[in-house]
Amino acid sequence: MISQKMQDLAKNGSAIRAMFEEGKKMAAQFGKDNVYDFSLGNPCTPTPDSVRTAAIDLLNNTDTLTLHGYMSNAGYEDVREAVAKSINSRFGMDYTAANLVMCVGAGGALNVALKTVINRGDEIVLQAPYFGEYNNYINNFDGVRVVAEPNYDDFSLNLPDIEKKIGLKTKAVIINSPNNPTGAVYSEEQIKELADLLDRKQKEYGHEIYLISDEPYREIVYDGHTVPYLPKYYANTFVGYSYSKSLSLPGERIGFLVINSAMTDFEEVAQAASTANRILGYVNAPSLFQKVIGRCVDETTDISLYKRNLAVLYDELTRDGYQMVKPQGTFYMFPKSPVADERIFTEAAKKYHILIVPGFTFACPGYFRLAFCVSEKTVDGSLEGFRSLAKDFGMI
Ligand code: PLP
After folding, report:
1. pLDDT tens digits for 35-65?
2. Is the CB of 151 under 6 A from ligand 1?
3. Which residues contact 331 (CB under 8 A, 6 or more apart)?
């Protein structure tokens, strides 16, 4: 008999994944070109050539035992050094390999961070809307999620409510900027206020409150927005990073966790994180792609397609009466549903072969998410359906 926990989890599977599977079925039925699947954040910009060249060269010219063998649980020393150097030059830090654990994507990095700090019953504060997998990650370690209300005006940080949600049992606050699903980028001013708040709360409660910054979309920003580097503002910060989006490599499962040098008991925490990577069963991040990253640390994909898709969808959808906050980053937008139960709307969209994700998945009902990391053709082909939907729901 499967565990109680898994019975519940298996029953309430991911709505995003369910939509993705439905998209595949619809594509088989109606033809791929007639289905507009905005469900999954699976990047469609090509991986840079340099990544492929590096992988091929490594495969052709490295002895296989070295390339495919185990290494330290934190990852190859030279790769971690290369990543640290890149972070130092971009954000003015003083990191070395010791600050980094190479991980199985951002998902792996978050699980490592949470395993490192959570005791059963510890509270983890999140702000809605948020990436729904956080629920599972926190649950993996018997943490308790405490959710702050969205800031509906612009989806920026709701600092007054975050403050209310922090208490004696708070072990960490997770933030994600640029944000999935809203596309919001938190300003430096807000980050400073958050850091001050956490410093105050640490003193008040007499223990560390960690800030876990989940940053797989750091490089995907528009209109000159920049993403502050959180360890500069708050000592007890972990950063989870991933190459899934910035290099279009989600299936390769490669990313890293940063343990900030100024963190309390830095060495103990870094050692614990490396052990967590091992005992969670990851053992280490995939070896070939660690080595590829070592050669391509400063590369990113060309995001011009996302820019173009954002411009088209934002203009067309707002013209059709959809209300939304313009995304500042990521490849998601999070418009308001014309009806309170957004599932009625996302179901209705299927009539026009449009697949979008209901907001309840992100703890924010009344909205829906649209992932525009798709081809121009998919975006352009969907516009008529979105217009018909707007008419069906009396928006135009
Ligand atoms: N965090 C956020 C906010 C995400 O959107 C995702 C993936 O979509 C992840 C973490 C997991 O990323 P990875 O594929 O690197 O594990």
Report:
1. 999 999 999 999 999 999 999 999 999 998 8
2. no
3. 41, 43, 217, 220, 245, 306, 309, 310, 371, 372, 373
